[in-house]
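Quick one, T. Sequence first:
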Amino acid sequence: MLTLRTPYLVFLGDEADSAYAKTGIGLAYWRPDLCVGQMRLSDNAADTGLPDQSIHEAQAAGAQSLVLGVAMIGGAIPAEWLPILVEALEAGMDVVAGFHTKLSSFPELVAAAERGGSNLVDVRVPPADIPVGTGQKRTGRRLLTVGTDCALGKKYTALALAKGMSAAGMSADFRATGQTGILIAGGGVPLDAVVADFLVGAAEKVSPDNAPDHWDVIEGQGALFHPGYGPVSMGLLIGSQPDAFVVCTEAGRDTIRGWDSFSTPDIRDVIARTIDIGQQFNPDIRCVGISANTRHLDPTARADYLGALEKEYGLPAIDPIATGVEPIVTRLATEFGQ
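Structure tokens:
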């Protein structure tokens, strides 16, 4: 389990694309109680809704850690951020990051942490004892969120479902598999930082044996059809052995973000491929709903879009933020007898 000093100042740099600022935005949305403010290097940067603060202002408000709230392609830390991170460390604030590049790989950050008596905290570090996957069936039930692409709502859907299922009297926990989810939940395994041979074992470790009626709601990663991140999705699907899955998509997104020559797959193809792979390890796997990010649609267009999805696929279609997850929770309770 991570030891994190709270509250946080969320650092967004000058990242204008909310999809790449998802760590900061997600943390501010789900755990505003842990955040005192945001630090942006440009007025055009993504806005979490938290107050803009300098390091000095955040410290005065009680901030103990500077959290890097941007997820960069490739996981590298931009060199232009280093002076700001040094300032925070020298002021006594921890720096928390979920990047593939480790904070400790920068000598200037190590030295600044020593001067300030602060800590470098890398969230994207998997535990050392991950085994190779066994494929053995575990007790309890599991739901996995899968996507047509990255950065479109798999984490939000899983968090909303776990909350909604608990509110409906079901036994359910959110299981984090990425850096933002881990910061929100306080624990988990960063699947995309695991060596490929151990991906399935890591997914098994995320959701161990549990009570027969307990649901682990597992945060999805990547996308099976993704040209760059498909392998982590495959390992997570095999290792989690889901009884149920929800397909996540974004209204109007026609190409893979960052890989514009690749079209997003049809939802029907995502369902078919997920079942084809998943049923090798859980013959009873089934799709129980569609979760759509409709943030760019007005209420009328949203209702039309979700209604069309329900008609085409015969599944409940929701936006986890705008409309809530109750139709999928109801379907789960009905189909699985809870």
